[in-house]
């Protein structure tokens, strides 16, 4: 009996391997459950090769302990789900699959499995991923049994298909989050995949790899948004066109999404949101201010946000006449779709939406005073918006500045100044009154010039006055005016300049007067200067010149040009030879016309002073001896008489008596008009004192 059973088993094991050649045997079936829980059903899968069209599949299970067979019809599917109630879980089973089509059949090879130990987790799902500078952080969803598992992570750089995978293994704990960290390069983007396997299970299988997870570079900067506003033809609405540059290639790996948040209807309390993948978008907006916030999102996280503030259209300075009646003829149905928007103006000129803006929807209101609560003497600005019944295409019906109650200006115009002025005209300018101090709509300025007043338009801050009187005082005042009256004036007093023609004559008179005074001062100072110079100059010596008979035949007269020097006359004993030598030497010097330099003159003066001192210190006897030795008088020649030619008569000694007579004669130079004129010979007995 036992032998028969064994033969049946062998036959049944061999018979599935036989079949038609047109049938391609399926692969060995793989059976598993998705978690370690006991109440999980099992899934058996197999694969085929070739064309298996029209084949049906049957799954066989055989108990290796008692040989009982079980078969399950899978029809044309390549998998079959076994309920945990229909199979034995704690025993070893043989499993195979058979394919059938008509008379053709083929079977896979059997495989042995224990179903309670066959666990294959589904592919992991990464629910959170972040990227730091050099770390990738991943968090996977726990398996169905909430137990720990073995994880394998592979990653590689993107952009290079040939780059090899890098692997990292990790283990997680039961009932704790499945967290992983991978070290990567900071400047590279990565592709990451994860798979896992159950812990503590004998026949646990690796799960499939997860879908590729792209870890791009981190978005460190907000999108660089460019925007433009286009006014529609009816001038009641605008179109906001937005565009921005995509991030770098490394930051765009895996795709980038852009999130927009904006308000197109001022009365909405919550902004509208939009998520797009392209880098352009257009939004319809009203004539009032609008704000748009945009940020990017990739697999590594969110970028910083960028907020765009679109200012309203320029404010009107006055309200149109129909501002209080433009809504009176509108239907109630249309009034229900109105939105009132108003805010208090700080400077009256700002085009940026203030931080505090109030809006309200009144279904029957036709005037801003019925909607808004405003203060007296304060300027407000309001808009009236309308949108279609579909809540699209918002536009602005009306805009206007408004006062609840007006008054006169509180302050005077600032900085009243004369910017240009002449003798017959002047130009005056001032600064406008600040809007918070106007307390009403400015209608004009009242400008007065010495009592003559005129009105100047409210948008004009300069005025020119003509035909003024030269050198005249004028009083100027300017004050702002509203519908309630004039405010305090700003005043200024100025003098016009003199006529240029009058100024020219006066200037000439002053120049002549000053010149005369200067001349008088110089004339008065000349004598003092001359006296001071004369005191500083050395005294000119005057030589004693004896009167002589002038003979024009013996002396040649030259124009008077005299330089006076100290002359020392000495009485010497003459001999004819000495006299002749002296006379010849004097003639030679005079003929040569040589100039004696200042240094030679100074040396001669020093030698003469030394000789005089020696003479003064000597005794009378020594002086007599010196006089006897130098009995002949030298002819002194003045070396500084330049360019003068003197003819000195020759002395001829003919007889011995004459020579003896001349031995005691004294020769004296004769001057006339300061010039050396002749030589006078006198006896020794008539010799006087030397000069």
- Strand content bin: 25-35%
Helix/strand class = alpha+beta
Main sheet makeup = 5 strands, antiparallel
The mean pLDDT is 77
Q: Number of DSSP helices?
A: 8
β-strand number: 37
Q: From the alpha carbons, calculate the radius of gyration and give it in angstroms.
A: 67 Å
What overall form do the CA principal axes indicate? elongated
Low-confidence stretches: 1-20, 593-598, 617-637, 639-663, 686-691
Distance between the termini: 191 Å
User: What's the helical proportion of residues?
Assistant: 10-25%
Q: How would you describe the oligomerization state of the chains in this entry?
A: single chain
Search tags:
691 residues; alpha+beta; five-stranded antiparallel sheet; 37 strands; elongated; disordered N terminus; disordered C terminus
Describe this structure in words.
By secondary structure, this protein is an alpha+beta fold. It has eight helices and 37 strands. The strands form ten sheets. Strands 3, 4, 6, 7 and 8 form a five-stranded antiparallel sheet that branches. Strands 18, 19, 21, 22 and 23 form a five-stranded antiparallel sheet that branches. Strands 30, 31, 33, 34 and 35 form a five-stranded antiparallel sheet that branches. The N terminus and C terminus are likely disordered.
């Amino acid at each position: 009996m036992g032998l028969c059973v064994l033969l049946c088993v062998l036959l049944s094991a061999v018979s599935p391997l036989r079949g038609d050649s047109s049938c391609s045997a399926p692969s060995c079936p793989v059976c598993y459950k998705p978690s370690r829980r006991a109440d999980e059903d099992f899934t058996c899968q197999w694969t085929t090769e070739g064309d298996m069209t029209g084949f049906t599949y049957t799954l066989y299970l055989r108990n290796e302990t008692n040989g009982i067979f079980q078969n399950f019809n899978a029809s044309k599917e390549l998998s079959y789900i076994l309920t945990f109630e229909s199979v034995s879980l704690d025993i070893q089973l043989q499993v195979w699959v058979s394919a059938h089509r008509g008379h053709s059949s083929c079977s896979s090879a059997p495989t042995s499995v224990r179903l309670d130990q066959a666990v294959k987790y589904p592919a992991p799902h990464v629910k959170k991923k972040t990227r730091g500078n050099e770390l990738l952080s991943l968090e996977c969803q726990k398996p169905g049994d909430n137990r720990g598992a073995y994880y394998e992570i592979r990653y590689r750089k993107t952009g290079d298909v040939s780059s090899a995978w890098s692997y990292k293994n990790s283990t997680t704990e039961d009932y704790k989050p499945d967290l992983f960290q991978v070290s990567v390069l900071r400047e590279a983007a990565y592709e990451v995949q994860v798979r896992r396997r159950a812990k503590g299970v004998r026949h646990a299988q690796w799960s499939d790899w997860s879908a590729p997870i792209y870890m791009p570079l981190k978005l460190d900067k907000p999108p660089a948004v460019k925007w433009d506003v286009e006014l529609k033809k009816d001038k009641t609405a605008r179109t906001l066109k937005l565009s921005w540059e995509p991030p770098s290639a490394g930051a765009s790996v895996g795709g980038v999404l852009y999130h927009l948040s904006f308000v197109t209807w001022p009365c909405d309390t919550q902004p509208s949101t939009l998520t797009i993948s392209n880098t352009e978008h257009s939004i319809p907006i009203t004539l009032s201010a609008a704000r748009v916030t945009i940020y990017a999102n990739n697999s590594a996280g969110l970028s910083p946000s960028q907020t765009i503030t679109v200012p309203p259209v320029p404010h009107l300075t006055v309200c149109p006449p129909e501002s209080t009646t433009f809504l009176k003829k509108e239907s109630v149905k249309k009034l229900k779709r109105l939105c009132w928007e108003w805010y208090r103006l700080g400077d009256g000129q700002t085009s940026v939406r203030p931080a505090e803006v109030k809006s309200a929807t009144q279904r029957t209101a036709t005037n801003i005073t019925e909607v808004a609560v405003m203060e007296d003497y304060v300027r407000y600005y309001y808009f009236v918006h309308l949108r279609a019944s579909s809540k699209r295409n918002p536009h602005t019906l009306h805009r206007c500045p408004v006062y609840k109650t007006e008054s006169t200006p509180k302050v005077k115009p600032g900085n009243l100044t004369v910017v240009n002025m002449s003798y017959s005209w002047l130009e005056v300018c001032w600064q406008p009154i600040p809007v918070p101090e106007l307390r009403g709509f400015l209608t004009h300025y009242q400008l007065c010039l010495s009592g003559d007043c005129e009105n100047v338009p409210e948008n004009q801050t300069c005025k020119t006055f003509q035909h003024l009187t030269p050198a005249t005082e004028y009083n100027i005042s300017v004050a702002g005016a509203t519908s309630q009256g004039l405010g305090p004036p700003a005043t200024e007093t100025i003098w016009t300049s003199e006529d240029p023609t009058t100024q020219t004559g006066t200037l000439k008179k002053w120049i002549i007067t000053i010149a005369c005074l200067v001349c008088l001062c110089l004339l008065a100072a000349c004598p003092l200067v001359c006296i001071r110079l004369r005191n500083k100059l050395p005294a000119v010596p005057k030589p004693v010149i004896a009167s002589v008979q002038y003979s024009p035949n013996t002396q040649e007269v030259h124009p008077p040009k005299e330089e006076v020097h100290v002359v020392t006359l000495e009485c010497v004993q003459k001999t004819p030879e000495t006299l002749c030598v002296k006379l010849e030497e004097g003639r030679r010097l005079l003929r040569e016309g040589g100039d004696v330099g200042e240094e030679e003159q100074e040396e001669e003066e020093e030698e003469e002073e030394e000789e005089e001192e020696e003479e003064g210190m000597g005794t009378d006897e020594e002086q007599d001896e010196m006089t006897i030795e130098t009995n002949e008088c030298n002819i002194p020649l003045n070396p500084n008489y330049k360019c003068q030619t003197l003819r000195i008569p020759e002395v001829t000694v003919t007889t011995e008596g004459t020579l003896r007579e001349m031995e005691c004669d004294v020769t004296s130079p004769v001057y006339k008009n300061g010039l050396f004129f002749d030589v006078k010979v006198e006896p020794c007995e008539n010799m006087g004192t030397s000069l």
